[in-house]
Design a protein that fits this description.
Helices cover 27% and strands 24% of the residues. It has three domains: 91 residues; 171 residues, no CATH class; 295 residues, no CATH class. It has 623 residues and is α+β, with helices and mostly antiparallel strands.
């Protein structure tokens, strides 16, 4: 019976071990699902919808191939509405996933023309493009008989993308994006996009029963060996001599003892030899099965790839507009602005400054470059730090223009002294434009920024004529200019907080009075204020107030009032006007970039200056 049980144990153990090994090898499930598509023609852009990328659960791996010779592929992703707005009137190929066939499908999309949209300018967000029935991009004939699509804008380096990869990093990209985000694939807009697209999703290829089956089979094999050895031991004892009871037989005469020869003695006895052979076979079988059972199955080889930053987005409530940028997107934008500003400042190039600056911020930098070209001891404007961003305030919108504010900590200066944080107000005019700095100011030492909406939600832009604030945004500049002229006698003095306002101390009414007193009797000095070149920007705070960015321009007119007299322009004004002295007079214009907190209407709080940037922006000789 023990031999029967041992044989059964051997058979069951072998079946379990083989089944466990088969689950890891022969019957192992696939490690991934793959869908591919080849795009015919030479379209400049491919767009893969987020729904297609989420056709299967798990992280998506996008592989692009077959780009034109010498062209670097570009893979970027952004909100689907933003991608379509960037494409504007450009034709593209939409890549979708067909659940019935498990393959990718392609179709050409021709956006509907919109009035004033401007195909190549991307001046405004266009409606969602409508697909056409054609399966391939509409080609245009060339002189050589080949078919090509019209060249378009280059998507590389756009601030609109949540993340971007180019060159080798774009060939294989791992990402995990939601349904409302789409991927754009292109090169430089001049050459065709890569024509081969493959999307791979991971599959749970785990075999939870493989290891228990192998281990269980090995245990059962050991039990079978034990039963087999026990059966052999019992069988050997049962074949010994048996004595019968009864009368004793008479002793027989002793026969001579038989001595076996050496040859016979060396031959193993049959029963023990059989036992050794029977024991060796199961042990060898157990070792072979154990070694085989420990061999793990091989997984599909993984291709080295670039992994995208995990995209953490909070689903907005119904009817809630998304923020203009995400925090990682803003960090990348600020870094690009910092690098561009550093290059422009180092070369004192107004053309380079125009890449990332506009309005009053550009005006102040252009003037500073012109002054430094003729006045070597003139200080440069504060550098734009790249990080860390301590405050992010994007506008909640899906249209253009878009506004984003950020506060960046400044590093210590060469002497180890702390510097004021820099607050940037950036505007993106169209989907294809990058963000440009409209205001770059240094915060006041005692500035207290009110509670703002989190970056994941964004803030609303307040209309310039809003009556829900203590003072409409478009009136703040003129009111503050009146305070700088008249001090506490200004009609607006009761609305503004004088505590912590260092600009009022530097160029306020008391300073102006001293400047006038220092002018000789042969000349006169007058000050006038007016709105500057900047656009008023106001973004709502959580207490129904607003942060208002505005620009004030102040003119200082030093005029000769006695014939034959002369006035000195000063080194800074001379650098801008080209005139050191004048017999008529000098007009110097100063630009003030200002940031205020304006409380809501009916509040007892006062308007507070949060920061400013100021400097001479122009000078000329009076006629």
């Amino acid at each position: 019976m023990r031999f029967v049980l041992a044989i059964v144990a051997f058979v069951v153990a072998a079946v379990m071990i083989v089944a466990g090994i088969a689950q890891r090898t022969v019957f192992a499930p696939p490690s991934h699902i793959q869908a591919a598509a080849t795009v015919s023609g030479d379209p400049r852009y491919l767009m893969i919808d987020g729904a297609a990328l989420n056709a299967h659960p798990g992280q998506q791996t996008l592989t692009v191939a077959d780009a034109p010779q010498g062209a670097k592929p570009v893979v970027a992703y952004g909100r689907t509405a933003d991608v379509k707005a960037w494409l504007g009137g450009q034709k593209y190929v939409a890549v979708d996933y067909q659940k019935a066939t498990g393959a990718l499908s392609t179709k050409t999309v021709t956006p509907k023309p919109t009035a004033g949209s401007g195909d190549d300018s991307g001046a405004a967000a266009t409606p969602s493009p409508a697909p056409t029935p054609s399966a391939t991009p509409t080609p245009s004939a060339t002189a050589g008989g080949e078919t090509t699509s019209a060249a378009g804008p280059n998507p590389a380096g756009s601030d609109l993308w949540l993340e971007e990869f180019d060159g080798d990093a774009a060939q294989v990209t791992r990402m995990n994006i939601p349904d409302d985000v789409s991927v754009i694939v292109a090169t430089d807009g001049q050459k065709a996009a890569p024509s081969r697209v493959t999307v791979t999703w991971p599959v749970d290829s785990s075999t939870p029963w493989a290891f228990p089956l192998i281990i269980g089979g090995l245990i059962l094999l050991v039990i079978g060996i034990a039963l087999y050895l026990w059966g052999l031991y019992t069988h050997r004892r049962s074949r010994g001599p048996r004595r019968k009871s009864g009368p004793k037989m008479p002793k027989l005469p002793k026969a001579p003892k038989y001595k076996p020869t050496a040859m016979i003695e060396s031959t193993p006895r049959g029963r023990r030899s059989t036992r050794r052979a029977r024991v060796i076979l199961p042990v060898a079988l157990a070792g072979a099965l154990a070694l085989t059972g420990c061999t793990s199955g091989t997984d599909a080889a993984t291709t080295p790839s670039k992994t995208a930053t995990p995209l953490a987005t909070e689903a907005p409530n119904a009817g809630q507009l998304p923020p203009a940028v995400t925090v990682p997107q803003l960090q990348r934008i600020v870094k690009r602005i910092s690098e561009s500003a550093a290059e422009a400042d180092s070369k004192a190039s107004a053309d380079l400054a125009k890449v990332r600056f506009t309005g009053s911020a550009l005006q102040l930098r252009e003037a500073n470059y012109a002054i430094r070209a003729k006045k070597t001891d003139e200080s440069a404007l504060p550098a734009i730090p790249a990080s860390p961003i301590v405050l992010s305030l994007p506008q909640a919108t899906d249209a253009w223009p878009r506004t984003v504010a950020a506060v960046i900590d400044s590093p210590k200066d060469a002497k180890g002294n702390a510097q004021a944080p820099i607050a940037l107000t950036m505007v993106q005019q169209t989907p294809r434009d990058n963000y440009q700095v409209e205001y770059a100011i240094s915060l006041e030492p005692k500035a207290k920024v009110p509670n703002l909406a989190p970056a994941s939600i964004g803030s609303a832009v307040v209309p310039p004529d809003s009556k829900l604030l203590a003072l409409a945004p478009q009136k703040v500049s003129a009111a503050y200019g009146d305070i700088l002229m008249n001090g506490d006698k200004s009609q607006y003095a009761s609305l503004f907080n004088a505590e912590g306002d260092t600009l009022r101390t530097q160029v306020g009414s008391d300073w102006k009075a001293k400047q006038k007193a220092a002018v000789p009797a042969t000349a006169s000095l007058d000050f006038t204020t007016g709105p500057g070149e900047g656009t008023d920007v106001a973004m709502a705070t959580n207490d129904s107030g607003a942060i208002v960015w505005t620009h004030l321009q102040e003119s200082q007119v030093l005029k000769v009032v006695e014939a034959g007299a002369e006035v000195s322009a000063g080194a800074t004004a001379a650098a801008l006007s080209g005139v050191a002295t004048s017999k008529t007079g000098i007009q110097s214009d100063f630009g003030y970039q200002l940031a205020f907190y304006v409380p809501p209407a009916g509040s007892n709080a006062k308007i507070t200056l949060l920061g400013f940037a100021q400097g001479m922006v122009s000078a000329k000789q009076l006629p």
